[in-house]
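User: Quick sanity check before I run a bigger batch. Here is a single chain. Can you write out its predicted 3D structure?
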Amino acid sequence: MQAYILNGERRIAPFEEPPGALRIHNRSLRETQQELLAAAGCRTEAIDDLRAIRIQPCLLVHDDLYFTGHALRGFLKAVRRRLRHDAKKKTAEGSAPRNFRAALACSMLTEHFSPTFQGRRASGPDGQELRAYDLYYLEDHDDACAVEDQAELLPIPYRLMVQRWRANRYFEPSGSTSLPMSLVALCPIQHWAALITANLLGLPGCMVQTARRRLWSTLGLPLRTALRAGSLRPAYLRGKLYWAGRGCKVHPSAHVEWTLLGNHVRIGPGAVVRASVIADRVEIGPNAIVDGCSIGEKTTINGNVTLRSCVVGEEANVGAYFTQLSVIGRGAALCPSSGTYDFNLRGNVPVAFQGRSVTSGSRMLGSCLGHGAFLGAEVTLASGQELPNGCILVRNPREVVGDVSRNLPSGVLRLDRGRRRSRPAGGNDAIA
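Assistant: Done. Predicted structure follows.
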C-alpha cells in the first residue's frame, strides 16, 4: 500500500523546529513514522499538498502525528474489517468509495496527560466519545473539500492497564496517582508538552518493538539478567533487567530495570534507572534517579539528581536536584540549585500556544528549556513556562559578589578584615 506523509508549516516553540525533527525515544518523529509505515508494508512518500496524491487507496499521515506500531496495525485491521462488512451489504449497484479516519475512545489514555493537545473530540455513530487523529485511509477524496470532512471516524480497539502509586492527599484527593499503559497510542505533536505525553504513552510500544528488533538479545535476556543479579530472587532480578549496548558500565549497586541502554553508557553506584530510553555515551551519576525518561546522546545527569518523566536532548547537563514532566533541549543546562515547579494548586497549568495563553488540561506539567538554554543557580521556573533557544537566566548581578575588596551587595558582610587594637593586660583582642 502507498502511504503519504503530509508536511505542514507548523514550528514547535521554543525549539522553532518542525514536528518531524523533534526526537521521541531518541529518534526523530519523521524516522519513526517512516520505519513503522515500512514495517506495515507501505511505500512512504512525503508531500506538501493533497493534490500530490496519485495512488489510491492509500494511507495519509500528518507530519506531526506520533503513533505506535500497534496503533497503525490496529487501524489497518479495523479498516479491512469494515470493508469486508460493507462488501457483504453492498447492493447490486455497488458501494461508494470509503474514507476512514483513526480515532480512540476517550479514556485515561487520551485524557490523563495534557488533553488540550490531544486529537479533536468528536462523537461516534453510537454516541461514544472519541478523539480523532490525522491518520486516514483514503479510497477517493475531493481536493476542494477538507479531508477530515470526507472521512468516517473509525475507532481503534485497545486494552488499557492502569498502574497506581500512593500520592500526597494534599495534591491528589484520591490519595493515589495513576499511569495509563497501552501498546496502542496516538498523539499529535503540536506543543512541547505533547513530547512528554508521547514519551510516556509510547514507552510500552517502544519496548516491544525493541524486543522484536533485538530478538537474539531478548532471547538471552533471562540468562543475562540472572548472571548480573547473581541470584534468582525476583527483587534482584528486577533490578538487572535491561538491554545494554556495547561498552556499557553499570555499577553492581545500581538498580536498572526495563531500560534500553545505548553504547558506552555509564551508571554510577546507587543509581536507580527505570522504564527509560538512554542514548549513547550518557553519564548518570551516583545515587541519581531516572524514571520514565528519554535521555539524548552525551548527556550528563549529576549525582543525587531525581529526573522523572522528562525528555532530555543531546549534550545536555542536568544538575537540578528534582525535575519532573519537563523538556530539556539540546545542549541546555540546569544548575544544581535551580529548579522547575511541576504542579499548579489553582487549577490546570496555563501554557503559551500560537501566541495566546491556553490551559494544558492538566494540573501537573513542568517547564521547557530550548536548545542551548541555561537555568542559573537559585532560579526557578513556574509550571508551563518555556525558555527560548539560547536563553540564559541568572540571578541579578548586583546580588553576586564581583569584587571582595569593595562594593559588596547588601546583606553580604566580610568579617575577616580590619585592624586589631590592643586591650589592657588580661583582655582579649577584638576585631575592630
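The chain has two domains: 2-201, 204-393.

User: Great, the batch can go ahead then.
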